[in-house]
Amino acid sequence: MELFLQGLILGLSIAAPVGPIGVLCIRRTLADGRMSGLASGLGAATADAIYGCVAAFGLTFISGFMLDQKLWLGLLGGAFLCYLGVRTFFSQPAQQAALAQGQGLAGAYGSTFFLTLTNPMTILSFMAMFAGIVRGSTDYSSAAMIVLGVFAGSATWWLMLSGGVSLFRARFDLNALRWVNRISGIIIVAFGLFILIGQIGNLSN
């Protein structure tokens, strides 16, 4: 139980800072409803759990490969963020109600899963923060408890965020949602450009 709680705290601490995934979750909750925001968060939580598996089970080959390729993964993730930001900026609220079902939920889940998986800071954060916990836990059952805790912690944060934001959804009319899309799109593009500039700088060194 202690290892589960440590993983829970780790999952919460990695998910809680408001970055591009948080902005996407907030915007999708306001535009498409709580389930769309929650699906976005669960995509990120699943990617967090995968990195937890890599660190907790000591999959050095996979972790080494991801770290070796973090430059190209960062470029790919940054470019995808820019694309997502531009699409968000020009999205029309009236067209978004249908996106909350079916392929909309799958798309919300898949996009944040991909973004979290290609974020080099997520890779480095997990490797650094997991080191202290995993060092004293060598058996598979202990590692599994940590990973389960990470997923539960991350999922709990996204559930609270999407649930909290959905309480204010009724106060947003179409004009307000247009501004949510524009502001969210600008912020997401800014995150993408920041990542791209950093990775291009590393590429030139």
Description of the molecule:
The chain has helices spanning 2-15, 20-32, 34-56, 60-68, 70-89, 103-117, 120-134, 140-166, 174-204. It has 205 residues and is mainly alpha-helical. The protein has one domain (2-204). The termini are far apart.
Kindly summarize this structure in a few lines.
With 205 residues, the protein is mainly alpha-helical.
The total beta strand count reads: 0
Rg from Cα: 17 Å
Name the beta content range: under 5%
* Average of the residue pLDDT scores: 79
What series of H and E elements makes up the topology? HHHHHHHHH
The structural domain count equals 1
**Helical stretch tally:** 9
Helix residue percentage: over 70%
Summing up helix and strand content along with how strands pair, one would put the structural category as mainly alpha
The profile of the biggest β sheet is: none
Distance between the termini: 45 Å
Dominant shape: flat
Ranges where pLDDT stays below 50 over 5 or more residues in a row are 94-102
